[in-house]
Amino acid sequence: MIQFHWRLPMHGDKADIDKSTLTRGNWGPPLDGNQAPGFRGGGSDGVPYHDYLLETAKAIEIAGFDGALIPSFQDTDDPWVAAAAIARHTKTFRFMIAFQPPWINPVYAAKASASLQRLSGGRLLFNIITGGGGAGQLWWGDRIAHDDRYRRTTEFLDVFKGVWNGGPFSYDGKFYQVENAGLPEPLAGQKWPELYFAGSSNAALEAQGKHADFNLTHLEPFEQLRIKFDRVKELASKEGRTVKPAVRFDILARDTEEEAWAEARRAYAAIDWDARERQFSAQRRGDSVGSPIAEAVRPQRNKRVEDLLIAPNLWAGFGPLRPGPGLGVIGSYEQAAERIDDLIDIGVEGFILSGTPALEEALRVGEEVLPLVRGRLEPARYAAE
């Protein structure tokens, strides 16, 4: 079955796509009209941002998504803690923790993961990230070179998998060495947490071929995606494995295509371009291979929103509206569903979608777009149509 996930705004959220500042949460300066927390009489109303995250998670669940990516950056709460809190207040919501392996010893990571599986009834997934280099990597003291980071991730997952079903398991690698390790009962043998693995370099794709359940990439022109998916399929086949393609992107959908474009124009009219240029400059300082792919269609203050359309309903204009990938889908509900079906036709089996504000747009996309996606049907029914 195709998986559809949303994205939790762990770094704060905007109440409207045209806002230039975060007005939900306390990750920015306090403003009049702020929510979670709100400010009354010069002080906080005592409503924590975690309450908003929980309400968003419930909306994602109600809207029919399988779960959501819980991202992790310098300016976010820890996703492990958030996942544990959300697990106790949801029923089917699957929490995809964004995780750089060297943050935790692999044996202890397996123990914590198995504990979360017991707590939640098997609803844990991972977005395995290896880091884009630059200041973000140095922030927590990681100076390992690009390709070695992927070798370290491979070793981490070797150990993680090796102890999952018990033990004893021993390993002697460049980065990790363990002797007679293993999870104790009843942690051993919990449901395996599927791995959404990000990365576009050769080193990343090789690591994915060995360990990933899903090859996760930002949205790119479909032919580029096809090439990347074929490369991962080839590498995975050498390991006797199958890796499913997955794509992450924003979606701006309304009743009509013109309404969606009107929303984009309204949002662009409020952009602080000086601030956005500083943001783009910072993003280019790392050694990530995936990040610069859409450089040629980078939004600029002298471009119209329509100038950033690179294919039917594929719009490269999301970058200035919030941190994250620039290419996403814009159009009517029917057109958005058609583009998702196009991706399913080239093999995509996992989606991580997002919109602003996260709560309202999760409900909108879940209620108006996902029911129109033909590929959500059982494969036999879809092929027969």
Ordered list of secondary-structure elements with their pairings:
Blueprint (H helix, E strand, L loop, with lengths): L2 E5 L31 E2 L2 E2 L4 H14 L4 E4 L8 H9 L6 E6 L6 H15 L3 E5 L5 H5 L7 H19 L4 E4 L4 E5 L13 E4 L3 H10 L2 E5 L3 H17 L5 E11 L2 H12 L4 H11 L25 E3 L2 E2 L12 E5 H13 L4 E5 L3 H11 L10 H6 L1
Helix pairs in contact: 1-11, 3-5, 5-6, 6-7
Summarize this structure briefly.
The protein is α/β, with parallel strands linked by helices. The chain has helices at 49-62, 79-87, 106-120, 134-138, 146-164, 202-211, 222-238, 257-268, 273-283, 333-345, 358-368, 379-384, and strands at residues 3-7, 39-40, 43-44, 67-70, 94-99, 124-128, 169-172, 177-181, 195-198, 214-218, 244-254, 309-311, 314-315, 328-332, 350-354. Strand 10, helix 7 (222-238) and strand 11 (244-254) form a beta-alpha-beta unit.
Give an account of the 3D structure.
This protein is of the alpha/beta class and 385 residues long. The protein has one domain (3-377): Luciferase-like domain (TIM Barrel). 37% of the residues lie in helices and 18% in strands. The protein has an eight-stranded parallel barrel, surrounded by eight helices. Strands 2-3 form a two-stranded antiparallel sheet. The chain has a two-stranded antiparallel ribbon with strand order 7-8. The longest helix has 19 residues, at 146-164. The protein is globular. The two termini are 17 Å apart.
